[in-house]
Amino acid sequence: xxxIGFIGAGNVSKAIITGMAKNKFExxxxxxxxxxxxxxxxxxxxLMIKCAKNNVDLVKKCKYIFLxxxxxxxxxxxxxxxxxIEPDRHVLVSLAPGYSIEECRETTxxxxxxxxxxxxxxxxxxxxxxxxxxxxxDVFTDVEKKEVEIIFNGFGEVQxxxxxxxxxxxxxxxxxxxxxVYIMIEAMGDAGVLTGLPRKMSYKLAAQAVIxxxxxxxxxxxxxxxxxxxxxxxxxxxxxxxxVLEDRGFRSALIESMLACYNKVxxxxx
Length: 270
Ligand SMILES: NC(=O)c1ccc[n+]([C@@H]2O[C@H](COP(=O)([O-])OP(=O)(O)OC[C@H]3O[C@@H](n4cnc5c(N)ncnc54)[C@H](OP(=O)(O)O)[C@@H]3O)[C@@H](O)[C@H]2O)c1
Hints:
The protein has 2 domains: 4-162, 3-Layer(aba) Sandwich (Rossmann fold), CATH 3.40.50.720; 175-269, Orthogonal Bundle (ProC C-terminal domain-like fold), CATH 1.10.3730. Helix content is 54%, strand content 13%. The chain is built from 12 helices and 8 strands. The two termini are 39 Å apart. The model has no long low-confidence stretch (mean pLDDT 96). The structure holds NADP nicotinamide-adenine-dinucleotide phosphate.
């Protein structure tokens, strides 16, 4: 299989490659480079992956190039590597929420650049990531798409999108949403402590309840409302809790916070 290079050795590269290690993906195919030697050498030592000398060296060595850098650094890095990109060989993976396929092509001056947008999330770190992908139309071979899927399955699940604009929604629904769930688990843990449980035990109970509930939504193909109803017996304890959640606007707080996240992505793109 072809080699994979990561430009940037920050949170996302660390999460993705750690998840791959957990899932026994062949890490000897991976190269890394970052701005400073410290970051890449640390990640290289921790995960036993190879370092490239610089961004150009990394592109020469690898076929799949992850741009795991902030969007403000895209211009500089793409300008640096554009002369060594071979349009028939290289595949660029753009991870920055606000940087479009068109912008990647304009900056490199390569009209038929093979570039895909990808939006992973932080549970990639434990091999349970969710990545949305949008391929630039009409430039990828079936073999490349298959290889891309294998790479992303190395740290979780993949969902291909039909429209590039849907990447903006993915920021709120899968890339940022672990933060909302962490707040929920923390609050559930506090409530457990309030009613007498040790804190560590409270987090374990809350986290596994969330994992199990999410698994049921994915595996049983049932509407989440139907699953919620099945937990609420008439005059029972759960419906008391649900009533308080509805009174306090739990549902609309989630919808509005995700809308705020989505609007912020749109604002960043202007
Ligand atoms: N965090 C998330 O959950 C998440 C989810 C989906 C997508 N994303 C996107 O993924 C991208 C990376 O995010 P992150 O959280 O990993 O960022 P980060 O932790 O800030 O890491 C950025 C990395 O870019 C490197 N870098 C900067 N300029 C460079 C250059 N000229 N050449 C090579 N490397 C350079 C930095 O090197 P040094 O370490 O040497 O400074 C650093 O290792 C962003 O566009 C972000 O929006 C993030």
